[in-house]
Automatic annotation (TrEMBL):
<dbReference type="InterPro" id="IPR024551">
    <property type="entry name" value="AspAT_Ic"/>
</dbReference>
<dbReference type="InterPro" id="IPR015421">
    <property type="entry name" value="PyrdxlP-dep_Trfase_major"/>
</dbReference>
<protein>
    <submittedName>
        <fullName>Aminotransferase</fullName>
    </submittedName>
</protein>
<dbReference type="InterPro" id="IPR015422">
    <property type="entry name" value="PyrdxlP-dep_Trfase_small"/>
</dbReference>
<keyword id="KW-0032">Aminotransferase</keyword>
<dbReference type="Pfam" id="PF12897">
    <property type="entry name" value="Asp_aminotransf"/>
</dbReference>
<dbReference type="InterPro" id="IPR015424">
    <property type="entry name" value="PyrdxlP-dep_Trfase"/>
</dbReference>
<dbReference type="GO" id="GO:0008483">
    <property type="term" value="F:transaminase activity"/>
</dbReference>
<keyword id="KW-0808">Transferase</keyword>
Amino acid sequence: MKAYQDMNQDELKTLHQQLSKQYQDMKDLHLQLNMARGKPDFSQVQLSMPLLDVINSHYDFTDKKDYCNYGILDGIDEAKQLFADILETTPEHIIVYGNSSLTIMFDQISRGFTHGYLGHTPWCHLDKVKFLCPVPGYDRHFAITERFGIEMISIPMDENGPDMDLVEKYVNNDESVKGIWCVPQYSNPSGITYSDEVVERFAHLKPAAPDFRIFWDNAYIIHHLYDHHQDHVKNILEACQEAGNPDLVFEFCSTSKVTFPGAGVAAMATSINNKKDILKHLTVQSIGHDKLNQLRHAEYFKSIEDLKHHMSQQAELLRPKFEMVLDIFDKELKPLHIGTWSHPLGGYFITFEAMDNCAQDIVQKCKEAGVILTDAGATFPYGKDPHDSVIRIAPSYPPLNELKQATELFVLCVKLVSVEKLLKL
Ligand code: PMP
């Protein structure tokens, strides 16, 4: 196979005719597939069904009557311990919430605006509030900051994490920069894990704003695809504490992609100071979260080892999907030099980087042939990818046979759009 850039116009035109015909044939299949969101498929969710039986009407609540009532705002002890084990900290740093970590993040931003952190000026009184957004990043993070009218500043990332020179420049000099969104392990969507050096540099920031916070969304902390080849992001809470910056970070996670998306348990880890400050607010907001669901999770996962075993079973279901997509990319696209892609060891996404100015057209062509992908640009603030090149692939949800068809169509669309760009059609 010849790289497309090395083809002359006549070769490209012939190729274009062939690819257009193949595309039409694919369209005639009337596919209806969706690879837009990183949802577990039903077989993954089924792994957690026994969790629904661990507490029932016969459960011995003798010492746990309070769990069936209002109260225990920061979560039951067993759930705090479980999340402390996941996040490698101790229970006094943990607040266990309801079903969604995204809701906690939204709440934290909202609290910054209405009440401020640790007695600092609420952001609603400021002329300008800015957030740093490592890109490509998680579209729902950007949606929250956009919703609050926060100015978002893109920060490029490489395989070690965000460009820390740039992060330090903004954070240490600009008082209106109040936070940064981070998915530090198996990042959504690039799959990279921040290096130890990057974590240390985060911990040693000297923010111009005293209420600057790192929003450390560790959504994929235990979501490895392989048992023996795993990333492990350095512990940010500990690093901040050691750097004399204990209040710098809010860390989030949930069991959404461990048990049931939408019906799992979410938690936050932070300094004792921040926790107290948050609880003052939370005590007005709620009389307690769903402690029976917390108990269900803690009873089902009696130890972190149980949890790791469960995640390894999840990985067995996910791994073939990732490997199939990557195999097809390697076979069909690698020799053509019309794109690059990530090879994640965990998380839920593969990031595909097409030639400049191709991503929107590829996503559109896939859609016209029946395969829905995440919108091009979605992984950038305001939905604007300056190179129009990044596409997020979410292989988890479709069954293998459908994923194969969808990937074949995707590859075809990448080829077709690339040839059209080279021909300037
Ligand atoms: N953070 C990241 C990075 C995610 O990818 C997701 C969901 N896919 C979430 C948060 C949402 O988590 P939750 O269900 O706990 O709100």
